[in-house]
Amino acid sequence: MRVLSGIQPSGRLHIGNFFGAIRQHLQLQAEHEGYYFIADYHALTSNPDPKDLARFTLDVAIDYLALGLDPAKTVFWRQSDVPEVTELTWILSCVTPMGLLHRCVSYKDKVAQGLSPNHGLFAYPVLQAADILAFKSHLVPVGADQKQHIEVTRDIAQRFNQRYGEVFVIPQEYILESVAVVPGLDGRKMSKSYNNTIEIFEPEDSCRANVMRIVTDSTPVEAPKDPQRCNVFALLRLVAEPAELAEWEARYRQGGVGYSQAKKRLAELLIEYFRPYRRRRAELEANLDYVQQVLRDGAARARQVAAQTLLEVRQTVGLGPRNGSGGNISG
Ligand code: ADP
Ligand code: TRP
Known about the structure:
Helix 3 (50-67) packs across helix 13 and helix 9 (204-212) runs antiparallel to helix 12 (259-285). Strands 1-2-3 form a three-stranded parallel β-sheet. 38% of the residues are buried. The protein has 13 helices and five strands. It starts with a strand and ends in a 14-residue tail after the last helix. It has helices at residues 15-28, 40-43, 50-67, 83-93, 98-102, 105-112, 119-133, 147-164, 204-212, 231-239, 242-254, 259-285, 288-317, and strands at 2-7, 33-38, 75-78, 139-141, 172-174. Helix 1 (15-28) links the parallel strand 1 and strand 2 (33-38). The protein has two domains: 2-181 and 288-317, Rossmann fold (3-Layer(aba) Sandwich), CATH 3.40.50.620; 201-284, Tyrosyl-Transfer RNA Synthetase (Orthogonal Bundle), CATH 1.10.240. By secondary structure, the chain is mainly alpha-helical. The protein binds adenosine-5'-diphosphate and tryptophan. Adenosine-5'-diphosphate (ADP) binds next to helix 1. The site of adenosine-5'-diphosphate has 19 residues, from helix 1.
């Protein structure tokens, strides 16, 4: 089965990205044909500082490799290195109803937050559909917030297939409901755009300091607490062994334990969890030529697949092969 996902280089990767998406990406590569990419065109919709875009793109590449992406097995590339995807975006745009995009919650959220919307942000889900459909991927592992974008992709693929014939595989999302949405320091969804994250590779001291800032309610130390409504417990759930988690749950319910005790333990568990990957990350940081080479090889492999789909799509809609690539207008 072909598994594909993308991640935006819109900031440093955080533990919400890891537990919501990256961990599944890496696990799935063992048994499936993995296609993972850095969605730099998607990140461009928020007009980042050019230096940041370049740095974060490289950081995402280094982080994925440090966390265990195996480039010998998995195709790993930067989205903008595969122009076939943007070409497909236009073709898909022409079967995408405006209403479908108007209903997208992530667009509405960003506008509600005061972001002045550009056309790229509005068309974002069509580019995402092209990412998925160009590679005929079956499974798309993402966090829960991406569910609607995968539904839009399915809708676009079905419309295309109905109008022109069965070209596209209808993809399925793969969401770990047990992880749901990882809360950030302020209790909202942890997100690069909310400045409420704990980075995967954050220095240890700053990780401890951030964990201590997690918002909790004002229940006194002695009083019983509801673990299900606590942001600290939600994060403990991700890194504590089941036996330890059960202990914390019991202590919360009994009372007599302060949130700061739980936070201290959480910080240590997080640091321990990511420690083995830190060394590997430092090695990669010192060998950027290797990282760039991985992205170049990945782009070449990805382009082969996407170019094949594009040829088929162009034929199907009546554009025919591109002039200058062995085809001619009369076909
Ligand atoms: P961000 O909101 O930080 O910009 P992205 O939109 O780039 O994150 O998301 C990358 C991947 O990580 C997606 O699959 C997304 O669903 C997942 N993800 C992001 N934040 C969270 C979170 N707080 N909890 C669970 N998954 C998340
Ligand atoms: N929109 C996704 C996110 O913010 C990133 C993304 C872009 C993606 N293209 C994709 C995810 C294709 C899965 C498949 O997380």
